[in-house]
Write a structure and sequence with these properties.
The complex is a heterotrimer of chains A (335), B (286) and C (257). Chain A is mainly α. Chain A has one domain: ABC transporter involved in vitamin B12 uptake, BtuC (Orthogonal Bundle), CATH 1.10.3470. Chain A is 73% helix and 0% strand. With 286 residues, chain B is mainly α. Chain B has one domain: ABC transporter involved in vitamin B12 uptake, BtuC (Orthogonal Bundle). Chain B has a two-stranded antiparallel sheet. In chain B, a hairpin with a 2-residue loop joins strand 1 and strand 2. In chain B, helix 1 packs across helix 7, helix 2 packs across helix 3 and helix 2 crosses helix 9. Chain C is α/β, with parallel strands linked by helices and 257 residues long. In chain C, 34% of the residues lie in helices and 24% in strands. The chains are: A mainly alpha (335), B mainly alpha (286), C alpha/beta (257). Chains in contact: A-B, A-C. Chains A and C meet through helix 1, helix 8, helix 9 and helix 10 of A and helix 3, helix 4, helix 5 and helix 6 of C. The structure holds adenosine-5'-diphosphate and magnesium ion. Magnesium ion (MG) binds next to helix 2 of chain C. The site of magnesium ion has 3 residues of chain C, from helix 2.
């Protein structure tokens, strides 16, 4: 009896272990980041494309924080991405070309706009929420389109001068510096996002997604949590937009487009919703596939895109990452 | 001064009627089954291509192609509803949105493949082509025809919903689905029928729209936003609300293009957002 | 009257509470008091407005008129979460839980909230050991065992009813409102639930709604009878059992009291 006792872990140890397991790095995550890092050496001719995919990945992660964890659907998320891009772009155009300053500016302006929006949409849900977020996205697009003295309108924002990163590494035409800069920034934000979803704050967001009526009964303010989530999500989207502006030294009106709001949703379900890495994977697959297929024929691209979207939704398999996990489990069990 | 105003009202009304025909079915879909069908515009586009195709390749008269457009869209809607949509009732809204966006994307691709990306022209019979003098203004005959036809259809629809048992069942189901089911009404079958009728209206609306707003494969994307606004602002499941919102949006759009062309769609979106913040359930929603 | 209500023992009080849904008056002139450590029951036929009263007390619904006092201060305008933070917790008649979260996660969430940990987005959960241990201990009190780590939707219904109570207790309330805690569970388990309720710390005031008269008479110190939104009468179990109107309205002439 006495000898056996130490072998049975105390319940609290088990409980703590359950939470540790929740936040542990999974093999898909490790694989994704290793491959992304290795692609710098493996695909030297494609740095610009992969950088774009990583940036889109961060944008998708920002949406996942909102949609995958809190259950709040946004059909106008490009608004925050675009505001971040224009902020960094205009700063660089006006002589404040330090990349980190651009990131901070993009995060602050997009985050502030996100906070404002969160006040507005806090009490909406369902079709009204979809339409209002859609409307906010379209409004931002129209505003940027008409306010061409600031944004360059249809022609895009010209004349950005982005300074070297940390004053040392100038952006080069092959996109080497752009790749490394974006990779490091995105990885840091990925770590922060991971931290967030594995915090009590993130748990509260999950609670809101799971049952918004119970959450107040625990003493948690749904309004406060969602405002924070919306603001953080918008700020991260703004960082992604700023990264795009800085690495391409140009801001097209397209950063605010409805198309971008929809494609970020598509990337998220394609990769797998509610696990962060799914967003990164979905963006990578989407951007690379679009580059390959749309070059052949944009009509086919639209068709395959639509078909894949329908298949992913109808299969209910949780996107690519969900599928891989199940595959991994099966292999694990087969052994 | 008065002339343009009356013209704007009439043009806006005609446009509103088109929007109402295309959105009416969507309102019932979303109100009754809570199914967010963003692909409703694809059915309208199908109606448009049926009209153009039958006229160009088979030389059907315009007026005869309209019922064909309605029937074609109804059949397509019925098939999609039975095979795909019905699995998603009561499911997650996001899934519905993405699924139907996928369908929009596919139909855009198919339309481009079959018809090319150039806008399709349509010739309407001469008696619809001209302008007539009404009171103090000249009005396009086609617009009057639209308003007349739309008015008749709306009347029929409202009477159908208010007076027939089918309409009563629909109203009951929109009101309280569980209760209706427990009264022994087969809501599934009811809904399939409603969906087909809504699709027919969309097809008809699409067919009628070609002459006025043109037709190309981006049609469902262009109208996705407008249809959603009409339905949500009007109040899900409310025919009157949808009609009112459609006409208001039609008139706003035409008036906006005339008076403040530089503002683009800005005013429209702003008004929509403000309206929904004030009344999230729409004007006539509960 | 006012002097009485200021007496320290009353933890929850309502004065002239009214609530209407359109023309339907669901709560009418409800004035009611719950002292510290009470074990009171609220009974009444279906549709009497019992759940509505709980929603009014907890702030889920706003009253048409009247006030709610918690520990002597007016909380009528406070939001539900603010009332919880002041020690007013409740359970739901119909399970209102987090299907994908485990009981451990849900309880940890509630405890983290109480300890003010939920507002910092960058604090690691794995570092909140005290909260996790407390959640584990609380679940162990209710014999959750391995079920503590399984997703809630996989648990048997009776366990889910218990989890309702656990989540309310995680807030360390001073007042606990239980809306039919044993609704839909077999008699055997219902007794377990009420034994657990009886064993709650003695300074916690409990108001429970229950239809089973045996249970009510066994566990309640006092009973309030609500009929058509009004308090019909209030008293000890004996008084209620012998109250002629209650026998007529509620107990169906009470052959088997
Ligand atoms: N949100 C609401 N809107 C309209 N009527 C309601 C609402 N909530 C409850 N009611 C009505 O109030 C009455 C009391 O309901 P409830 O408090 O749930 O009764 P009980 O819990 O005593 O069975 C019922 O007639 C119910 O239909
Ligand atoms: Mg009740």
């Amino acid at each position: 009896m006495v000898a056996l006792a130490p072998r049975i872990p105390a319940p609290s140890v088990v409980a703590r272990h359950l939470f540790l397991r929740r936040s542990r790095w999974r093999w898909e995550e490790i694989a994704f980041w290793l491959i992304a890092a290795a692609s710098f050496f493996l695909f030297p001719g494609h740095h610009v494309l992969i950088t774009q995919a990583l940036i889109s990945g961060l944008f998708v992660v920002s949406l996942d924080l909102l949609l995958g964890y809190s259950g709040i659907a946004s059909m106008g998320h490009a608004a925050f991405f675009g505001i971040g891009a224009y902020t960094a772009g205009i700063l660089a155009q006006q002589g404040w070309g330090d990349p980190l300053l651009g990131l901070i500016g993009g995060a602050i302006v997009a985050g502030a706009f996100g906070a404002l929006c969160s006040l507005l949409v806090a009490r909406l849900h369902g079709a009204a929420l979809l339409t209002v977020t859609l409307g906010i996205g379209l409004l931002c697009y129209e505003l940027a389109n008409k306010w061409s003295s600031l944004t360059g309108g249809d022609d895009g924002l010209q004349g950005m001068i982005v300074q070297p990163v940390l004053g040392l590494f100038a952006f080069d035409i092959d996109g080497n510096v752009g790749f490394i800069y974006a990779f490091v920034v995105i990885f840091i934000f990925y770590l922060l996002a991971r931290r967030l979803v594995n915090s009590p704050f993130g748990l509260a967001l999950t609670g809101i997604r799971e049952n918004i009526r119970r959450v107040p009964a625990l003493g948690i303010s749904v309004r406060f949590q969602l405002m924070m989530a919306f603001t953080i999500s918008a700020a991260v989207a703004g960082v992604a937009g700023a990264l795009l502006a800085e690495t391409t030294q140009y801001v097209a009106l397209e950063v605010l487009s409805f198309d971008r709001s929809i494609s970020v949703l598509i990337m998220l379900v394609l990769g797998g919703i509610g696990n962060l890495v799914g967003g990164m994977v979905g963006a990578m697959v989407f951007i690379v596939a679009r580059d390959q297929l749309a070059a052949v024929n944009p009509v086919y691209w639209n068709f395959w895109l639509g078909l894949i979207l329908c298949v992913v939704v109808m299969s209910g398999a949780g996107g690519i990452v969900g599928f891989l996990r199940r595959l991994g489990d099966r292999i694990g069990n087969g052994r | 001064m008065i002339g343009p105003l009356v013209n704007i009202l009439i043009n806006g009304l005609a446009y509103g009627v088109l929007l109402f025909l295309m959105a009416g079915g969507l309102s019932v879909t979303m109100g009754l089954m809570g199914f967010a069908n963003l692909a409703h515009g694809s059915l309208a586009m199908l109606g448009g291509y049926i009209v153009v195709g039958l006229m160009r390749d088979y030389h059907w008269p315009f007026l005869l192609t309209l019922p064909a457009a309605a029937i074609g869209a109804a059949i397509a809607g019925w098939i999609v509803e039975r095979t795909i949509f019905k699995r998603f009732y009561g499911g997650k809204e996001l899934d519905q949105v993405l699924l139907t966006i996928g369908i929009v994307s596919m139909t855009v691709a198919i339309a481009t493949y079959v018809w090319g990306s150039t806008p399709q022209p349509v010739r309407v019979p001469e008696f619809l082509d001209g302008r007539v003098h009404v009171g103090i203004v000249d009005v396009g005959t086609y617009r009057l025809f639209l308003i007349l036809l739309g008015g008749l259809l709306t009347l029929g629809l409202v009477l159908g919903i208010e007076r027939t048992t089918f309409g009563a069942k629909i109203r009951a189901a929109v009101d309280n689905r569980r209760m209706t089911v427990s009264c022994g009404i087969n809501v599934d079958r009811l809904f399939t029928l409603a969906f087909a009728i809504g699709s027919a209206l969309a097809g008809l609306g699409g067919g009628l729209a070609v002459y006025l707003v043109g037709l190309d494969p981006s049609f469902p994307v262009k109208y996705l936003v407008y249809l959603l606004i009409v339905v949500v602002v009007g109040g899900l499941g409310s025919i009157q609300g949808t009609l009112l919102a459609a006409i208001a949006l039609g008139i706003c759009d035409v008036a906006g293009k005339y008076y403040v062309p530089e503002a683009g769609a800005f005013v429209l979106y702003a008004v929509t957002v403000l309206l929904l913040l004030w009344r999230p359930q729409g004007i006539f929603g509960r | 009257m006012n002097i009485n209500s200021a007496s320290p023992e009353t933890v929850l009080e309502t004065r002239g509470l009214h609530k209407s849904f359109g023309a339907l008056r669901v709560t009418q002139d409800v004035s009611f008091r719950l002292p510290q450590g009470a074990r009171y029951a609220l009974i009444g036929p279906n549709g009497a407005g019992k759940s509505t009263l709980i929603n009014l007390l907890t702030g889920v619904l706003a009253p048409s008129s009247g006030t709610v006092l918690l520990n002597g201060s007016d909380v009528t305008r406070l939001r539900p979460e603010e009332r919880v933070r002041r020690g007013l917790a409740r359970t739901f008649q119909i399970n209102t839980l987090f299907p994908e979260l485990s009981p451990l996660e849900a309880a940890t969430l509630a405890i983290c909230q109480r300890r003010g940990l939920c507002i910092n987005p960058f604090r690691a959960l794995s570092g909140c050991d005290d909260a996790i241990d407390e959640a584990q201990a609380l679940l162990a009190d209710f014999d959750f065992g391995d079920d503590a780590g399984r997703p809630t939707h996989e648990l048997p219904y009776g366990r889910q009813r218990l989890l309702e109570i656990v989540l309310a207790l995680a807030a360390k309330p001073k007042v606990l409102l239980l809306d039919e805690p044993a609704a839909g569970v077999p008699q055997q388990e219902s007794a377990e639930i009420f034994t657990a309720i009886e064993a709650l710390p003695s300074d916690v005031a409990v108001l429970f709604i229950e239809h089973d008269m045996d249970v009510v008479f066994r566990f309640a110190q006092r009973i309030t009878v609500l009929v058509a939104g009004r308090i019909l009468c209030e008293g000890t179990p004996d008084e209620i059992a012998n109250h002629p109107e209650v026998r007529e309205v509620y107990l169906g002439d009470g052959e088997n009291v």
